[in-house]
Amino acid sequence: MSDALPERQTDIGPPDYKQFLPPVVAKNYGKWKYHERISNAMMVHVGESGDKCYTVRAASPRLISTDFIRDLTKMADKHCGGFLRFTTRNNVEFLVDDENKAKALEKDLRDAGYMLGGIGDTISNVVHTQGWVHCHSAATDASGLVKVLMDEFADYFTGKKGLPARVRLAVACCTNMCGAVHCSDIAVVGIHRKPPRINDEEVKKACEVPSTIASCPTGAISPNPAAKSVKIKEDKCMYCGNCYSVCPALPISDPENDGVAVVVGGKIGSLRSNPKFSKLVIPFLKNNPPRWPEVTAAFRNILTVYEQGARKHERLGEWVDRIGWEKFFALTKIPFTHQHIDDFTIARETFRASVAFKW
After folding, report:
1. Mean of the per-residue pLDDT values for the chain?
2. Rounded to whole angstroms, how far apart are CA atoms 253 and 230?
3. Of 71, 117, 203, 272, which cross-links 229 as Cys (Cβ 3.0–4.6 Å)?
4. How many CA atoms lie within 13 A of 113 on its CB side?
5. What is 164-227 written as a DSSP string?
6. Separation between Cα atoms, residue 359 and residue 356, nearest integer Å
7. CA distances (Å), 121 to each of 56, 222, 239, 341, in order?
8. What is the tens place of the pLDDT at every residue in 38-48?
9. Burial, 216: exposed, middle or buried (Cβ in 10 Å; 0-12, 13-18, 19+)?
10. Three-state secondary structure along 257-308?
């Protein structure tokens, strides 16, 4: 089959991504020889042909305005033929085929006030969910938390401060976890602590009882025929808010009891060790907008202890595996509580079956 685009376009399925590749990437697709980090804001990929593709990386807040997008596209049109991309962690990457163009682009971006960095052993931009701006079941805000975290750790993004290895941060505003908190080095996840409130009159008007019951992953919801509504078995409810997505008469948001938990040690990459899931370290911190000082202090504490104790190229989860969780809690002075004990029904794969303690 020819790689040429069909003459007639349809709206069925996504367009072929290859038509959006920069010429240097399309030419060397699948034939890259190696890549090198030039600075915290720039790297180069070298193809078998000798062609080079320079990447200049800048931060973005993820929820962005049309004016911000216009500014980005103007910068891309000026320096790199209009080619840019957004990474999974909301970084903006400009793709250039010439080193002089890349340096001129970097200068213009800095002069315009963009924060550049995130390449190599740094804190990258924060992947996050939608929070109070948009999500109906959010237990905390995403944009506000990301703003204060990046304010706190901007020097690690730009490279003014170094780290043993890359550190990935994430924010999910509820346990449905649209964000990557399960596989990030340090992450915060919003949690509800009370079951949904049932408005029987509204259930009759706005909800289908069978689909509402089916929406619960733990089987905590059952019919309530007397009220033509539903009832919730609290000891089965895990406060995920999934039922509220189906039935707006079961609101779960609670300003007094909602907050966040902090998890650490996850990663996606398979370099040096297998991918890891994050583990709970702080069960609950109350929402305290607009600056969330308790959350930023917790992140700073964990990052500082990791920075002081980890070996070169050792990810946070790998460092914890080496010293043991007992020592992690001792060094960070985070209290160990019953909530850290994994007693989930099908948690055998996550149990530490050995009787050895690492001190």
Report:
1. 91
2. 19
3. 203
4. 2
5. SS-B-EEEESSTT--SSGGGSSEEEEEE--SPPPP-HHHHHHH--HHHHHHT-TT--EEEEGGG
6. 9
7. 16, 50, 37, 32
8. 999 999 999 99
9. buried
10. CCEEEEEECCECCCCCCCCECCEEEEEEEECCCCCCHHHHHHHHHHHHHHHH
pLDDT at 343: 72
Hey, what are 109's tokens?
């971006």
pTM for this prediction: 0.89
Give me the sign of the Cα torsion angle 214, 135, 241, 90: positive
Encode pLDDT of 98-137 as tens digits. 999 999 999 999 999 999 999 999 999 999 998 998 888 8
Instruction: State the pLDDT confidence band at 9, using cuts at 50, 70 and 90.
Output: low
User: If you search the block for the tokens 């969780």, which residue do you land on?
Assistant: 325
Phi, psi values for residue 307, rounded to 5°: -60, -35
Report residue 40: phi and psi, to 5°.
-65, -15
pLDDT of residue 1: 44
Pairing outcome for strands 92-96 and 84-86? antiparallel
> What is the tens place of the pLDDT at every residue in 48-72?
999 999 999 999 988 889 999 999 9
The token pair that represents 141 in the structure block: 């805000």
pLDDT in the model for residue 353? 64
**Both structure tokens of 338:** 């019953």
H or E stretch covering 105:
helix 99-111
